[in-house]
C-alpha cells in the first residue's frame, strides 16, 4: 500500500531534520513537507525551507565526524536523519583533484577538478537520487519513477534495487543499447517510449497524476534538488573550509549551478567558512545553449531550443532553473558560455591527457568552456578555480569512436614495432 | 634518458621502505630492488622481500592516520615512501558493502561485497598500476609499458598521463572499439597488434629486452603484484581489524588470490589483527578454468587451456600464479570452482538486482561461484563471507546486450502504459 502524495507528509516533527516546510520560490506560500513540487497559488516551483536555528547546530566537527559520503552533510539536508533508513550506495565525498598539469597547459595558477565520476553509478545524479529516494521512503512510497536518457535512469534503478524499492524508469525507445543494458540489469521496470525525451517527460507528468509513486524529478523534486548542494559543501570542506574564487559548472536544467551557489551561501551564513566572494561560471554545449544564449543577449528569460549536441546529459532545451542560473552568474560576477561539439571532444581529451581523468561529454563541455572563458578574459587565471566533472567517460564513448583509434596497427614483431617509429623518442 | 633495468636500483637505502631486496620464490636467491622479475639461477619468479623489523613499525593508528587510498598501507609496500613522488589517482579504500539482500537470497548469514569498481578507472588494476608506476618512477624510468586486453590498458594510460610519464600500451587489434577509445583518450602510445593476446604478450617480452622501459607486468611485476595485498588489508581494516572466515576471489593469473592470502597472513603475524583461521575460495569461468580444473583433478600443476568465455578479464589460459593459488585454497581449506557463461550473466544480474552493484563479467563469475560453492556445501552459509567485485559492468556491456532489453516498448500514452500492465502490482 502506498500513501497518496497529497496525504504523505513526513511522519512527525523530527528535531534532527532542519527542513520544516516547502515554500514557493515566487510567492513564498508554504506547504507541509510532502511529495509536491508546484505552488497551487502561482504555479511556481517549490523548494525546501529550513529552520535556521536547526541549521546552526551543524559544526565543522559534526560534519567531519560523519561518514565518507554525502550524508556527512545530513544536518543541512531535508531527509535521511535516521541513518538506517537512508537509501545509500555511498554517493558523494568524491575526490577534489589538484590539476597542476592542466593548469600549466592553460596558463592558470591553481586549478582543481571535482571528480564526480567516482560516484557509485559514475555520475553526480547519485547524490540527488540518494536524497530523493530516502525522502520517498520516509514519505511512505514503495515505488519510485523517473524519465531519463541515461545517468538518472541508471542511478534510480541501482538505488531502488539496493533498497528493495520498485522502480519504473521511462526512456526514449531509441536509446543506445549500452544505456538500456546498464539500467535494465538492476531488474526494475524499464519502459521504452516510442517518442523523444519530451514525449517521455510528458507521459511521466501524466503518470504522476495517476499513480501514488515518487517521481524523483517531479513530485519529490524539491528533495531531489537539495542533494546537489553537497557538491558545494564538499569542495569547501576539501579545500580546508574555504570557498574557491571561481567555479565552472555545467548547465542542463540549471539546478546544479544554483545549488552550488546556495551551498556556498549557506556555509558562509552559518559561519562554517569565511564568506569570501566567488564567481560562478556556467558551461553549455552550443548545440543546446538556451542559458548561454540568454546570458549573451542580456535577457532575464530563457528561450527554449531544440537540442542537437553530443552532450546528451546536458540536452535540456527548456531548462527549469535557467533563469535562476542566469541570476547566479550575474550576481556573483561570473558568466555563461558555450562550446561546439568539436571543442567538447578536445576538452575530454585535454582532461584525460593531462590529469588521467576520463570525463563524460558534460566534463568535456566544462573543460572546453574553462578554456574559452580564459581566452575571452572572463575568468582570471590567477584566481583559484574549481571545475566540476559530473560523469564518467565510459558512459559516453560514442563521440570518441570515430577519432579515438590506436597510434599504429602492426604485425606482432619487433622489427615492425621499430619500423613504425614506436621506440624511444 | 632512462636507466637500463639492470642498473636501475632504488636510489639509496631508505629507512621508510620496508622492502629490502627481491628474492626468488623457488630457490631463495636474493637480488637488489630493481626492475627484474626472474631468478637467473632457476628462472622462477622473484618477489619482494621485507625487513620484518620495519614492517613491525606499522600500527593500526599509523594506518588509520593515512590517506583514504591504498597508500595508507605504504608501510607494508615496496614503493611510494615519499608521498610527493607517488603516481596516484587515489586508487583503493573502496567500499566494503554489507550485502544483506544478496545474503538473504542465497540463505547466508553475513555477506559483504568488496566493491573495487569504485577505483578511478573502475577496476582493481588501478591498485597494482599505482604501485608499479610509483616504483618505475623511483627506479628512474620515464616510459611505462604493458600488454593488455582492457582494464590494465586503461589504468596504465590514465596513471601515466596524470604523472607525465610516457605510456606504450599493446593490445590485440580486434579489441572492442570501446576499450580502444577508453585507453586512447589519455593520449599515450596505443599499439594494435595483428594477433591474439598471446602474440601481444610475446612481443611485449621481446620489447622488454630491447627498451629501457618499465613493463608493468614484466620487469616491475614484483612491485606491481604487491599492490594487490591492499585488497586484503582493506577488508580486514573495514571489518574493524578482523579477518573474515571466508573470501571468494576471482582468478586470472592467480596473483590477486595469493596476495589477499599474503595480506591476511601479514596482518596476523604483525599483530595488527587476531590471526583467526580463514578459507580462500577461487572463482573461474568454465571457458577458462585451468586452476579450477587442476583443483578438481587434485593436481599440483596447471595445464594451460585456450580461453573461450565472456569473462575476458579472467582469460589467462596459462596463469603464472596458478600453482600458488591452488596451494592457498588447499592450505586454508577453501576450494576453486568454475561457472558457465550463462551462470556468469545470471551472477551479474543477481548482484545488480539485490545490491544495486553492476559488476564486470569477473564480478559475475565471483557471485555465480559463490552460489555454486554454497550449493555444493563447500562454503558455509553461516560463516562471515567477503566476495570481491574487481571491475565495473560499464566495461563489459556486450554479454548483456542480447538479453538486457526493456520490460516493454509502448507509445507515449497513459492508456498504452496501463494496457501494458505497468501500473501498480
Automatic annotation (TrEMBL), chains A, B:
- Select a single GO molecular function from the record's annotations and give it: L-serine ammonia-lyase activity
Q: What is its EC number?
A: 4.2.3.1
N6-(pyridoxal phosphate)lysine: residues carrying this PTM = 125
Broad class of enzyme this protein falls into: lyase
Q: Which Pfam families match?
A: PALP
**Which keywords label this protein?**
Lyase, Pyridoxal phosphate
Please verify whether the record's keywords include Cell wall biogenesis/degradation.
no
Extract the CDD domains matched here: Thr-synth_1
Q: Which residues form the Tryptophan synthase beta chain-like PALP domain?
A: 88-391
Transmembrane ranges, per UniProt, are none
Annotated family: Belongs to the threonine synthase family.
Protein name (record): Threonine synthase
Native source organism of the sequence: Parafrankia soli
Amino acid at each position: 500500500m502506498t500513501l497518496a502524495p497529497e496525504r504523505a507528509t513526513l511522519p512527525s516533527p523530527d528535531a534532527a531534520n532542519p527542513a520544516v516546510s516547502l515554500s514557493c520560490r515566487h510567492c513564498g506560500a508554504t506547504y507541509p513537507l510532502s511529495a509536491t513540487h508546484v505552488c497551487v497559488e502561482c504555479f511556481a516551483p517549490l523548494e525546501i525551507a529550513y529552520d535556521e536555528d536547526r541549521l546552526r547546530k551543524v559544526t565543522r566537527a559534526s560534519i567531519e565526524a560523519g561518514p565518507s559520503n554525502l550524508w556527512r552533510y545530513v544536518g543541512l539536508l531535508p531527509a535521511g536523519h535516521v541513518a538506517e533508513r537512508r537509501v545509500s550506495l555511498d554517493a558523494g565525498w568524491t575526490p577534489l583533484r589538484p590539476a597542476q598539469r592542466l593548469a600549466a597547459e592553460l596558463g592558470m595558477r591553481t586549478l582543481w577538478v571535482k571528480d564526480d565520476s567516482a560516484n557509485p553509478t559514475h555520475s553526480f545524479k547519485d547524490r540527488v537520487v540518494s536524497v530523493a529516494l530516502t525522502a520517498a521512503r520516509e514519505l511512505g512510497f514503495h515505488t519510485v519513477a523517473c524519465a531519463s536518457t541515461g545517468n538518472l535512469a541508471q542511478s534510480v534503478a541501482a538505488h531502488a534495487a539496493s533498497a528493495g524499492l520498485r522502480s519504473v524508469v521511462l526512456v526514449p525507445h531509441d536509446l543506445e543499447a549500452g544505456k538500456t543494458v546498464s539500467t535494465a540489469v538492476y531488474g526494475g521496470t524499464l519502459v521504452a517510449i516510442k517518442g523523444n525525451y519530451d514525449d517521455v517527460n510528458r507521459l511521466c507528468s501524466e503518470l504522476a497524476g495517476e499513480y501514488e509513486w515518487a517521481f524523483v524529478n517531479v513530485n519529490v523534486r524539491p528533495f531531489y534538488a537539495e542533494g546537489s548542494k553537497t557538491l558545494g559543501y564538499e569542495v569547501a570542506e576539501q579545500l580546508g573550509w574555504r570557498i574557491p574564487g571561481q567555479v565552472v559548472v555545467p548547465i542542463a536544467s540549471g539546478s546544479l549551478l544554483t545549488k552550488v551557489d546556495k551551498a556556498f551561501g549557506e556555509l558562509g551564513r552559518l559561519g562554517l567558512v569565511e564568506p569570501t566572494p566567488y564567481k560562478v561560471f556556467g558551461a553549455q554545449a552550443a548545440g543546446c545553449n538556451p542559458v548561454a544564449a540568454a546570458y549573451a543577449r542580456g535577457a532575464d528569460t530563457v528561450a527554449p531550443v531544440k537540442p542537437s549536441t553530443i552532450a546528451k546529459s546536458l540536452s535540456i532545451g527548456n531548462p527549469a532553473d535557467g533563469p535562476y542560473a542566469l541570476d547566479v552568474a550575474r550576481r556573483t560576477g561570473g558568466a555563461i558560455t558555450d562550446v561546439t561539439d568539436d571543442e567538447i571532444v578536445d576538452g575530454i581529451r585535454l582532461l584525460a591527457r593531462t590529469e588521467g581523468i576520463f570525463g563524460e561529454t558534460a566534463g568535456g563541455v566544462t573543460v572546453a568552456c574553462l578554456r574559452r572563458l580564459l581566452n575571452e578574459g572572463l575568468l582570471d587565471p590567477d584566481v583559484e578555480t574549481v571545475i566540476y566533472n559530473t560523469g564518467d567517460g565510459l558512459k559516453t564513448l560514442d563521440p570518441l569512436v570515430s577519432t579515438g583509434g590506436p597510434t599504429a596497427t602492426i604485425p606482432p614483431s619487433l622489427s615492425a614495432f621499430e619500423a613504425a617509429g614506436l621506440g624511444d623518442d
